[in-house]
Amino acid sequence: MTLILGLESSCDETAAALVDSKRRILAHRVAGQEAEHSPYGGVVPEIAARAHVDRLAPIVEGVLADAGVSLADVDAIAATAGPGLIGGVMVGLVTGKALAHAANKPLIAVNHLEGHALSPRLADPDLEFPYLLLLVSGGHCQLLLVKGVGDYRRLATTIDDAAGEAFDKTAKLLGLGYPGGPAVERVAKDGNPHAVPLPRPLVGSAEPHFSFAGLKSAVARAAASGEHGVPDLAASFQQAVVDCLVDRSRIALAACPDATAFVVAGGVAANGAIRGALTDLAARFDKAFVAPPLWLCTDNGAMIAWAGAERFAAGLTDDLGVAARPRWPLDPAAETVRGAGVKA
Ligand code: KG4
Ligand code: ZN
Fold first, then answer.
1. DSSP readout, 38-77?
2. Residue 116 CA: which ligand 1 atom is closest?
3. How many Å apart are CA 154 and CA 256, to the nearest integer?
4. pLDDT, tens only, 22-46
5. pTM
6. Which of 18, 95, 187, 254 has the fewest C-beta atoms under 10 angstroms from its C-beta?
7. Cα of 180 to ligand 1 centre, how many Å?
8. Is the CB of 208 inside a 6 Å radius of any atom of ligand 1?
9. Cβ neighbours of residue 198 closer than 8 Å, sequence gap 6 or more
10. Measuring from atom 8 of ligand 1, which residue has the nearest CA?
């Protein structure tokens, strides 16, 4: 049995957790930054990095106290080393290095995307490799075949915005505030998903890539026309995203007959309409559908600690010179998709 301390600070959540190799979450704490970023309608990297500096050390002390353990009881320290907002990533990685050095423990530099990709196995002990993963967050929208720890095949990515980014930008233009995803979902419950005609970018194309920039612009035009209320705009936007995710995932499922399950992770997986539609899709392919609990879908320390536990079990640790990486693709062999240069 090994005990891993995990640190996460790549975006706007400061988080730490203690997770053991038997999938027990001994403690976890997350501090969001809504108050800091909401005046700007999105995450301001400099403000995020400063907030991580203020909060990370007390959060680490907090999880150790919650679990009643000390650093000496921990077997390794896992920290997100990218991809993400580089200031925040550096805060978490340097904190992890300092703790590892001071306590003389191994360091594990975790790819944030691997944290999301493996988190379903923390929640579900029966989930076996390989599985098809739809990773939908504020920074990423990818379909990945998860073949093993550190072994990923990327089937698709977004050629422009991520799905969560589209939710956040749509919320901003509809005046719904930040973070946008939960706000859009809430308002959409009072709207008609078929009221506003909106495009479904790339639906029907042979490769399962994503695109959301045109959808967001279409919502902006429909809103500016003054013909539709905010609930109908939100519901129709959400329905268009659902249709895109379902169509693209369908192509990927057809291409991966050996996948043991269809898994969704990342913050957007918290959306009830999206979860419902993906559950139905998995059933059509006779695949188990796995979605981690909501708190494990959005950024947290437990997913980093668990990815650390999986890497530690595989003998994968890092030296203290490991670099923080703003971009870090899970599948280095995946071709660059036109227009997708800014996404990892
Ligand atoms: O995984 P995550 O916490 O952070 C990133 O790594 O990006 O995902 C955050 C994203 C945000 O864009 C947020 O608006 C979106 O997930 N999100 C949602 C919902 N809850 C969070 N999108 C749609 N519906 C939701 N209920
Ligand atoms: Zn994330």
1. GGGTS--HHHHHHHHHHHHHHHHHHHHHHHT--GGG-SEE
2. 1
3. 12
4. 999 999 999 999 889 888 878 899 9
5. 0.92
6. 254
7. 8
8. no
9. 215, 218, 219, 222, 236, 237, 239, 240
10. 267
